Structure formats: structure tokens, C-alpha cells
Amino acid sequence: MNFVRIFNTLKLWMPMIPTPGRMPFNLFSSIRLLVACCGLLLACGCQKLFHDQDALLKGRTVAVSMSVQDTPPPAAQALPHAESAAPPPALPLRPLDQRLLPTQQPVSMQPSQPLAASSERPAATARQQLAEAAVVLTERVMTEDLVLRGTVLVKGSLIVAPQATLRIEAGSEVRFSADPTLPQPSRLVVQGRLVISGTAQQPVLLGPAYQQAEPGDWGGVVLLGSEKKNSIEYCRIEGAQTGIQAQNAYLNARGLQVTTALRGIELHGSETSVQGSTIRRCDIGIRLVDSEADLRDSTIRENRQGIVARRTSGSLSNITVSANAQEGIEWEQGRYRISGSLVAGNRTGARFVDADGQLTLCRFHDNRAHGAELSAGQVRIRNSSFSNNGGVGLVLEQVQGMMTGSALQDNRGANLENRGQEPFPALLNWWGSADQQQIVAGILTAPRQDELPLIPFVPFLKERPATAP
User: Would 73 be classed as within a structural domain?
Assistant: First the structure.
């Protein structure tokens, strides 16, 4: 087959070779023979390239010019496998700042010592767990209305879908047990509506699956985007990370008790009305951020901090904030209106920073540091008292407003101190004495360049006003 192709190729080439008339026949025959031999050698040498089974140019018509070495290059050898690099030595872990860790407090603590979570919790087997419950719910997602009564054990979390309502009847106990395979504690997450209908005689209990609750044993109640009217009446919440956490939700609570929690109530972008409730033995009693709050007839005591508010509008009426280890009230920005309330036995009674508000018929006494501190903002103080505080009764710094009909006396540091350059009128108040020199001795002011007083207090009352608490 190959010789046929060679012959046909030569047959095509021959007519192309000119035959000069003067060239003798023998020379012409010799040239034709030479050309035929060259074609034969070329075809034999390239046979492998064109016609072998694995030829790269098989079936193609190409013009090739190449030179082939007599000896092939040495075969490539596989590179040796690199030895597995030893892992870098682990960096030593820095010990966690102990200030960030809550500390275990003894059970028989004084009122001024708040309860905080222990950094080393005893083993679960060493604590007495709840006996078998009548109803057990495991990682339940409620898509329809549900009523809980009696003793209920929730293993994992219980989620209330947006279209569903969870009702818990009076006298019920709902206990939560964490899934040991998950890093987060169990929670009651409400996207729909929550209605707890306890009574003063038969309150509802929400707590961990232990007889003796400790802070952080379970996650607590989370109102997640639930703008429906969530109602909680006469309910005890124990041992939670956050007793009730509302995220863009509405909460109406009456007769609520939150104890032994890291945070009692925490609101973000939410609205709440709390009446006749008690928040105690928590790290922070109530924390309000970008929210609206109405607190009435309630007690916040024996926490590390009582009420912490940021950019919040709040009305506090007839509340008691006492025996907290640090600030009873810390309010930054926003607006406040506090009336008929007692702030006593804290380190600092109240601190308001860049916030506008009113203090009416309030009593700040027996706080270990200052009774109240106000920095920037505006305030109107009427018929209130600041007495027997370890520091200054009322501290002002760049505050605008006025005070009248109030009583300031027997504070160990001073009755009033103005640290800024903004005059603060304090007319018609009782300073614990009718002697003007004694009144002046109880008022501290910063140095001032002009002759205008920073605390104008004349005229002053000659006796304690009956309207001051």
C-alpha cells in the first residue's frame, strides 16, 4: 500500500521535471532515477510519523522538516515526595481577663453584692435534676396554637412560628434542658405570640431542669420580631442568661419576677410596659437600647447594675432601685421621666449623660458614692430629696435646667456640686439649714471668671418643704 502511494507521488512529480531538448537521454534518465530514490527514502523514513497506529499526523497532509536524534533523551523520573512538614507549634493561650468572667458569690450575700454566673460550674451529675415531666417537647417548632399546663420539660429549644400562639396556664412549670451536643443553651423563641396567664396564688415558673437554678442554665425567653401583644402575668423566671430578651417586639408584663440571671430584661428597638414586677440578683437588672419603656410599681435590687439605658425614652413611676453594687440607674442619651421613686443603697444612685428629663418626687439617699450625677443635657428637678449620701448629693456638669421645692442635706461630700461653667438655678430649696453661710459651705463650684454665680440659690426655704419626700 505504501509503495502504491510512493509511485503515485512520483507519477505526479515526473511531468514537473523539465526535459531540455539538448539534454542527452542517459542524463535525463539518471536524474529521474535520483529523484525517485530520494522520494523513496523520504517516504520510508517518515512512515512511522504518518502511518503508525499512534502517529500524531495520521490522516493529515502536512509539510514536515525535522531532525531526529540518534539516541532518545533519558526518561523522566518522578520527583521524590516531599516529607510532610511538621505542624507549627501551638501558641500558648493567653489567660482570659478575670474581669470579664463573672464570679461565684456565696448564697448568704449581703444586699449590695449581686449574684453573677460562676466561671466554673459544678458538673451536671452533681446537681439534682427535675423528675420526669408529664409532657416532654424535644426541639419543637410550633406552627399551630398550643396550650401548656402542668409540668413540661423542653429538651433543646421551643420555637413559636409567626402564625402561632403559645399559652401557658396558671401554676404550670416549664423547664428547659440543653442539648449536650450544641454549644448554645435551650431557649423559648417567640416569633408569633406568647401569653402567660399566671396568678398571684398560682404563678407560672420558667426555669432550667435543675431544682437549684444558677445563672445561665438556660437561654431564657426571646421575643424575636414579635410585634403582637405578648402578655406575661405573674411569672417567675430563674437561672436564665437573659430572662426576657425582646428584639423589635412588644412586651406587656405584670407581676413578673426575674432572679438569678445574667440579665433580667433586655430590649432592643422594642416597646414594653412592666408593672408590679421584681428584678433581682442579676448582673444587669434591665437593659434598654433604642426602646420605649414604661416601668411602674416595680423593684430592681441586688444586681450589679440596676437599669442601663441607651438612646431610650422611658417613664419610671413609683419604682425602687436599691442595693445594687454599682449604678442604680445609668441613662445615656434619650429622654426620661422619673416620679415617686426611691434610689437608695447603691454605689452611685443615678447617672444621666447627655439625656433630657424630669425628676419629680424622687428620693436619692444612702448611696455609697453620689446620690445623682448629671452630665450635659437638660433636667427639671421638683420636690425631690438628696440626703445621707457618701459623696455629693447632686453633681452637675454642663447641665441646663432648674431645681425647686427640693431638699438637699446631710451629704458627706457636699449637698450640690457644679463642675461645669453652665449656671444652674436652684431657688426655693431646703439646704438643711437657714444659715446662708452653712448653705454656701455645702455648695461646690468650679472657678469662674465673671461674677455671676454658678448656683444661684437665693431665695431659699427656711424649713423642709412638706412636698419633698
Answer: no
